[in-house]
Write the structure tokens for this entry.
Amino acid sequence: MTQRESYTVEVAGLVRHFPLFEVAPGVRIAVFNMLGDTYVVKASAAALAERLRDVRAEVLLTAEAKSIPLIYEMSALMGLPYVVLRKAYKSYMGQAISAETVSITTGAPQTLYLDEKDRELIRDKRVIVVDDVISTGSTLNGMEKLVLKAGGHVAQVAAIFTEGEDDWSRVVALANLPVFKD
């Protein structure tokens, strides 16, 4: 097996090597997957919590799945409850609300669902929307739409990484990942 090319990054004081994967013809991204990397989760959560300490908020929100350990750790550090948007509807979710997105890693439409019980956590609350990587902004837009549909207000957007050359100045992020074009 040949060694996959990687991109080296420093995040929250830790060095990691992200494998490069082609997501469209001639377009590669450095894939960040923090699942199982407790050190990156804890360090990134602490760094984001510190940067968000002056944001007036009552709830944290993310989409499943890779950001779940991050938002759990941020919740513990910040003393705020968290909500996870699901990518599949289950009957126990009751009268869930939904929004469509297209992730750069799947390339296909996905639906995000906000559970009926979690709608009450968000109503009339200031919400920090959290993601691991914000690349195209599609998932972010879906998360923000659901906060608004539930009657909440987006107080801030935060991510470990933004990706590409878009204007991400409204996002509190630890670093930016390049998009590699051949």
Observations:
- The mean pLDDT is 95.
- The CA atoms of residues 45 and 73 lie 6 Å apart.
